[in-house]
Amino acid sequence: KVFTLSSKSQTGSGATKIAWQPQQGNYLATCNTTVHSVDIYDRHGEVKEQVSLPGACTGISWDKDGDNLAMIQEKSGVIYLWDANSRKLTKVDSGLKDTLTFISWSAVASTLAIGTNKGNLLIYNHQTSRKVPILGKHTKKITCGAWNSNNLIALGSEDKTISISNVDGDTLRQPAIRGEPSNIQFSTMKTDERKTGTEETTVSVIIAKKTLFLFNIEDPDNPIELAFQPRYGNIVSYRWYGDGYIMIGFSNGYLVVISTHMKEIGQELFQTRDFKDYLGSISISFTLGKAASCGDSSHIRKNDNLMKLEWTDDGQLLAIATQKGNVHVHLTRLPVLGCGYETRLAYLTSLLEVTILSNFHEPESSIKIDIEVEPSFIALGPYHLAVGMNNRVWFYYFEESGPQKLNEKDYLGTVTSIRLNSDYAAAMLKNKIQLHLIETDENDLGHDRETKLFPEEDEKIKITCYDLTRNFLIYGNDAGSIQYFYIEDWKFVNEYRHGIGIRGVYSNPSETMLIFIDEKNDGFIYNPINDEIVDIPDFSPTVKGILWESWPQDKGVFCAYDDQNLYTYIYWNNSIFGSECKLIGETKLPFSQVPFLLYDGEVICQTQNGKTSTVILSTHSRFSRLDELVEEELKIALTQCLSLRRFKDAWNIATQLSQKQFWMEIGKAALQNLEIEEAIRVYRHLKDVGMVLSLESVKNVENKYLLAGHMALFLEEYNLAQDLFLTSNTPKAALEMRSDLHHWDQALQLAKNFSPEEVPYISKEYAQQLEFMGDYPNALVHYENGLTNDKEKSEENAVCTAGVARMAIRVGDIRRGVSMAAKSGNRALCRECATILEGMKQFPEAAALYERGQYYDKAATIYIKTKNWAKVGEILPEISTLKIHAQYAKAKEADGKYNDAVRAYENAKDFDSVIRINLEHLQKPEEAVRIVRETHSVEGAKMVASFFQKLGDFASAIQFLVMSKCTNEAFQLATTHEQMELYAEIIGDEASHEEYESIALYFENRKYYFLAGKFFLKARKFAKALKYFLRTQPPGEGNKSIDMAIETVGKAQDEALTHQLIDYLMGEVDGVPKDATYLFRLYMALRQYREAARTAIIIAREEQSQGNYRVAHDLLFSMCQELRKQKIKIPSEMSQNLMILHSYILVKMHVKRGDHLKAARMLIRVANNISKFGSHVVPILTSTIIECHRSGLKNSAFSYAAMLVRPEYRNKIDLKYKKKIEQIVRKPDKTEIEEIQQPCPHCKYDLPQTQLDCPDCKNTIPYCIITGRHMTTNDWTNCPKCNFPAIYDEFKAILEDEIACPMCSESIPPSELTKVSDVMPFLHPDGED
User: Fold this and answer.
1) 12 falls in which pLDDT band (50, 70, 90)?
2) Fewer CB within 10 Å: C terminus or N terminus of the chain?
3) Nearest to residue 336, comparing CAs of 370, 391, 288?
4) What is the number of alpha carbons within 13 Å of residue 1310 lying toward its C-beta?
């Protein structure tokens, strides 16, 4: 609420009339029918005039411009006119004696209509003071009326008629109605076609408060009367709006909207009940687009009914009159006045209050200033605030304590707007600008820089717009000129002539760019430094203003705005494309909000209720919440960042997206905008070494065009790069670029202008390109242009000469081309030209050039094609192609020159043909055989076999038939001529089972059982093979047949065949048991290793009893190895027997090496098991006694001597040792060298070296195969061949004496021995007890 006017007569029952001044809305006129005065108030509720009347006021009316207020009263016919400008009251005598009841000004002229209580009418022209009385217009009191846009007046009277008259009072229509009229209005009914500027031809009127009557002046015969539901009550008020719509208010609180379209008439489009008790009035503000109604639910009422509403034309103020005469004025739309400077705001928050924000991000820092008048403009500067209206401006200065009023200034004319900088103010005074100091010192009143009026008096221009910056006053005029006035020098420094009137100018904060809008509503960016003009694309013709970005980082960003949208642009003058401006986004502007500051993508707008709001531009909407965005939104945000040149934000977004394509977009944008360091950073992140190095090489280039050219080159904008290079201070860079890109046609044109010395080189390169493209005539021309007399360019000349030769041939000048190629001595050129000639079917010349270039194979091919065999023969030694030799050989064979043909076939590696000629023509079979044996030729072997078959040499024929894979023919030949054994020998192991079976059947039929069995075995017919092997065999084949039988059973793995062979070996077939060795071999073949082991023990025992100790040893050793290999546990008996036999074998080695102690220890072990050596008891005991005695083991020698002199052995003692042995017994010496103790490798218990059973841990200790002693952990090695353990030093010693391993009899280099660090796997080897 702005103010409240209290009634002068609280007890009065008359109606209160209110009327706002049209257009300006500066005055409100009020009166009450019970009060004899009219009060006139300003917008703030202050009384400006009180007009006393002789009687109660019966009507008030403002003219169309709001200059005059007309008032009538009931006591006389005098009309009172109050001038709003001069505030003077004048009286006009109407000349009518009746009581004046109605008054209304024309809507289009200064004409006033006055009606009386007797129905008379007066038309008064205020300009001419002419009065036209019309008596008898109605017969009764005129109660209401209205003018239309055609200056017609409609009147309603208590006589139940409506009259429609022109400005002269002539009645045009006078329809009768059914009740008293009230609230007449003019408008236009809705039609099918929406028309602009349609005349108001429809009169609407309320009849008897019940119906709404519609009368069309152009269709008087078809009036319309609309009735409504009784529950709505009486019609209180109505208003036309829009395209023929009527809003109607009813006394019971209902609001109804209807349409006047003939198809919709009578239908309610909208209905609501806002009030329960009553509705007082309705009003519509077309400026606001809003409707207001009043009634019982209002909080204003306080037992005082609200009866009337009226809005100012601008919709800012709404006056509400009550039944008791009170008037309440509310602010419904505050004038949108505001200004921004950097981050500060100043805006109107009430009609007499301005709020200042030092930082729009900090609303708590606001300061409110009460001002003296309702301003029509506000201006904000670095240190000052200016508010004003009409021709007066109040200046305020910002101090630490708050804004203080500085001064006020009156201007010579009405000020429409004002701009401030730190020292000066510029005021717009109707096509003129007054520039003056804000703060003036009384001592400097005559200073020539205190004030200045633009334009000068002699200039016939009208200033249409202006802007004031820190240093310049900039203004545009109707002639299309833009002037820069430099305040410091107090003179004009720049002028730009556009040619079309300028509507608005807007300088950026740094004063380096200016946006101006011309009268065609086109926008441009002007650079005052170089007078460059850039069109603003997609510039809306409805743009009302421009806001430059105040945030320092977005220097080129600005917004154009109209009533509905904000258009975001960016201007950039530092790109490869030069200065450019782009529309990068569009943002919806909230209804009725006016923007006045742009900072970091936030537009600060002022609303109609005196507050500010922030609109985030669509181009900046995602920057504040990057962490919350999903991938698609991040992509949009990246695009926005690149549009705004915000590379730091773009980097952060690309890091989140983490995809190469987005880094590439940033790199491309950085290159386009000459952001070299940013581009290097991006490409270094992409690990694009080439691009980084290229950018590093040019980043210090100072010339802008040269640098931009390099960036365009990197972006593959070659034409743009060329233009930029040519504009730069290094135009030759364009030539270098085209040369590097192999754009030789453009390079040649550039070279002629900038570097003529490079024309030959470029001509050569261009010619090569043309040659590749097939443009041979032009290529010839450029090759010729590439030839020079410069000896230093011999290589280039050679290339051009070769090109001329090739192109001459291509264009048909064959003689010239061939001549040049032949004289050049260039092999490659000869080949190239010969290839061209060959393609052109010029074979003689092509062959000659091939030969000249030493391409003999190619030359020979062409000579052969032309049947020139003589030339082929001449160059044959130089030819390496086998096909050519073969062709030549065929030709010589056809001529009967077989020796020449053979040599040619040999060169062609066609040995089959060589064999054929040797056999058929030269009669050299031995040569053919030699070639077949060397080359293994199948076809050759066939020919040789056929040759020998014809000679009757069937053995040779069979051999060569097999060699030629003709086994069937060879078999038949062998069968026919009894050569089967030869055939079988020849085919060896490479034949098929069927072939082996055929051979076996052959031998079976001839009762060659051994051979039959042999080939049945190869054919895997095991039963037949075993059958024939067990047949009685010829002498010498018996043992061999048993071996083959064992092999057969081993391969067959058939239990029946196995039993059959075992029965045979055991003698159950023929009653003759076979040697047990065969049974052992059978078990081995069958992989029945346990049975084989038992058999081996038996065989070894037999061999041992017969004295074949080495045989028994080797048998047991091989059996142990096989069992180890199969991971089968070795029987302890086998291990024990092998150890005793090995100890016996070691004796001889130690005796031979002179180590008698070791020999004696081994003989003691053997003697302790003498029962196993039954055939050699006496010799072994004799040797034991001698070695023990020799080694100092006297007690042991005595013990075995006493055993040997027993009766059963005594006579068998060798006479050579008998006396010695008897003496040892007779004179016993029981001294004994104590055996060295060594730890058990299992439990570390010390025991004698040769003892193999540990009494402590009960384990059997592995023995050394060299010494026979038990093993220890600290000097362990294994034989590399048999893997038996040995003491490392002992084993190495015998190997160095070139003695083989005593266990496996293999010779081993000493270097192969290695010590074993982990002996545990060998203490318990797999498979041993």
Assistant:
1) very low
2) N
3) 288
4) 12
